[in-house]
Structure formats: C-alpha cells, structure tokens
Amino acid sequence: MNFGNLFRIALKALSNNKFRGFLTMLGIIIGVGSVITMLAIGQGSKRSIQAEISEMGSNMIMISPGGDRRGGVRLSADDMQTLKVKDFEDIVEKCSYVSLASPTVNASGQCVYGSNNTPTSVYGVNLDYLEIRNYKVEDGDTFSEQDIKTAAKVCLIGKTVVENLFTNGENPVGKVIRFGSIPLKIVGVLESKGNNSMGMDQDDLLIAPYTTVMKRIQAVTYLQGITCSALSEDYTDQAIDQITKVLRENHKLKDGDSDNFEIRSQQELASMMTSTSDLMSTLLAAVAAISLIVGGIGIMNIMYVSVTERTKEIGLRMSIGARGMDILAQFLIEATLLSVMGGIIGVIVGVGASFVVKALLAYPIHIQPWSIILSFAVCTFIGIFFGWYPARKASNLDPIEALRYE
To answer: Which of 223, 231, 228 shows the shortest CA–CA distance to 250?
Structure first.
C-alpha cells in the first residue's frame, strides 16, 4: 500500500467524524494561538522598551545619592544629601568622556492657573538636560543661562499640563502659573512625547532652572541627582570610571569605603528591562504551551478510541495483505493531520488575536516568523509523538483476533 493511498484513507477516516476531529484539534488550536499571541505581546513590549531607551539616549548616565547606614539604621537615598552643585561642576570640568551634564532637583505639587489646577511635578535642570532627554520646544523658547544664574521664576510646560490648565485653548506662552505658592512664567511649550513603556505620562511636567527649584521651591542646597551623557555609547564605561573617581575624591572616601552615590547607565537599564521582558515572554509562552500538551493528550485519546472502533477494519486490511507498517503509517498520518490542521488554524487564530489585542488594548505587538515556525513544528511533533503509541497498538493487532472483535 503506497503513501498516497494511506493519505486518502486517513482523510476519509477523519471526514467521517468531522465534529469529533474539530474538538480534538481544539487543544492544538488554542495552544498554538496562545503561544503566538503571548510571544507577539512579549516581543512587542521588548521592542517598545528598546525604542524608548534608544530615544532617551543609549549613552545616558544617571547619578543619584546612595543609601547609607547610620547608627545601625539604613537610610534611603531620598534622605541623603551627598550630591552637591560642586560635584556637578567638577564632573563637567574633569570628566573628558562626559559630553553633557545636568543637575536634577524635582518636586511634586499642585499647579494652578485661574480656576484650573492639576497635580504635576517640576524638574529643576539646566539646558543640557533637554538635549540629553531629547525634549524639544514646540512653541516659545527655552530659559537662558542668565535665568539659571538668577534663579528666575520661569518654566517650560508639558502638553498634559497645558490641556489641564488652559482649557479654553489660549496660548500658554507668556502666561504666569503658580506651582504651590511660587509664580512661574511660561517661556515655552514642550513637544509631546506621550507615555513611556511603563505607562508614565512624559508630558505631565514642568521644567525649570535647577537653581529656581533648589532656592525657591525646595529650599535645599543639595542635588537629588545628576544626569550625564557620554561622548558615545562606546565610552560609557570610561565616563562612569571618571565620574566615580571625581565623586569619591569630592566626598573624601577612603580606599575600602563604600560609595555614597549610585551610578546607573542606560545600557544597564536596557539590559535589565530586556531580560525582564524576555523572562515574562518565556513564562507566558510556557503557560500557553501547556495547551499544546493538553491538545496532544486529546489526540492520543481520540486515536485510542479510533483504534478500538476500527479493530475489525484493521483485521480485514491485514487479512488481505496490509503489513503492520502500513497500519502504523495510516494511524500516524491521521494523528499528524489532526495536529497539522489544528496548527494551521491556530496560527491564523494567533495572528488574528495579536492584532485584536493591539487594536483593542493598544499593546505593542511584534509577530516574529520564528514563533510561527516553532509553534507549527512543535504541534507537528506532538501529533507524531502522541499518535505513535495508539498507531503502534493498531499495527500489533492479531488479524484473526481483530476479525473476531465485536
């Protein structure tokens, strides 16, 4: 009996029980569809994170106060006052691998204009910060170096704050708003950046000279952070080494003393977030893959039922010359057909579900060809693996006993 005949016999056997065949394939369909959808969401999130980090600058370096232990009690970084304006000035002067640097001081509070108000945050920085973080002014202008020197009451404003305060559509440039009790004149409106990968609104902010925030809003003499940019991504490690040396000298730390500051690079952040995204994608795909195993067990169960139902037919085929190998191949083809057809439908369902998730939930997705190929290959293997034992049982039946079976 040739392969073509075996294939036609298998198709006919499946067509005689269409609904049962569909229910058998359902586990494979759900499994393949789930794997493709989960991987598409995971890869989409990963690409979104990478794009956002790339937009922020892969050579960005963030310096913050480090936690310290005093009297046996560990203080949080927020309680530390180890970063000073001199640290920033020395980094600019002595670190040749640093191209741009900005102090950062921020505060949260209520912003008021007329009868409208909104909670937001103000970030005290210098002009380099706009370039480091890729902020652009859409309307108006930036504040000046003179504004920084005089701690002028001026600010740049994000689009979300504009929408919340200027509800009548007036131009905010030149208007005076109040942050807490401090009046600030708006000199420019920032271009919209939208939400970041963690859902935070990047347009809900004010940007003001760091001296203004330090002296007029926070009334502090220390910095909450320093944001730098290396000459290029390749020089990030050298820049970190130089910054570490400058800060340890400024803070009079001896050999063996722990740093009282923390330095994080964008590369480190990207690596951490990417590994987290990969882990989540793997976990989601593993959970979805369980459906494939369940589908395989369903195929094995139905093939057992099919062997039992067709015992007499098997005996008849053997009595007229069919070999055990022919019977084995016939049932293996049936199991593989169930799995492959379920895989094809599952791929269609998975791709469709991915686009539905993108349209309805606005999640970023990215369907990679290897995920489709891998899912299809796995479901084919499952069909052969779980179909083998029932097929083997059918091929080992004794023809005489099979003919007597009722």
So the answer is: 223
| Pairing assessment for the beta strands 154-157 and 182-190 based on DSSP bridges | parallel
Residue ranges per domain, the chain?
3-52+272-404, 81-259
Q: Are 88 and 226 in contact (CB under 8 A)?
A: yes
**Confidence class for position 72, pLDDT limits 50, 70, 90:** very low
Residue 126 has pLDDT above 80, yes or no: yes
Return d(Cα 402, Cα 394) in angstroms, integer.
10
**Cα–Cα distance for residue pair 183/111, rounded to 1 Å:** 10
In this structure, are residues 255 and 128 in contact, taking their beta carbons and an 8 Å threshold?
Answer: no
Q: What torsion, rounded to 10 degrees, do the Cα atoms 278, 279, 284, 286 define?
A: 110
Its sign, for the CA torsion 308, 310, 314, 319, is positive
The two three-digit tokens of residue 145, written as one number: 């170096």
Closest CA to 176 of 230, 234, 112: 112
Token pair of 182, please?
A: 């401090």
Instruction: Give CA–CA dist 310/183, Å, rounded.
Output: 88
Copy the structure tokens of residue 370: 């290897």
Phi and psi for 286 in degrees, rounded to 5?
-65, -40
CB-based contact 210:143 (threshold 8 Å): no
Helix, coil or strand: residue 237: helix
Q: Which residue has the tokens 């809900």?
A: 204
Cα 4 from chain centroid (whole Å): 48
Smallest CA-to-CA distance from 91 within 70, 63, 72 is with 63
Interval 29-41: pLDDT, tens: 888 888 888 888 8
**Cα separations in angstroms, 222 against 79, 219, 252, 344:** 11, 9, 17, 62
Please tell me the distance from the alpha carbon of residue 113 to that of residue 287, in angstroms, as a whole number.
51
Query: The whole model's pTM is what?
Result: 0.61
What tokens were used for 399? 């023809």
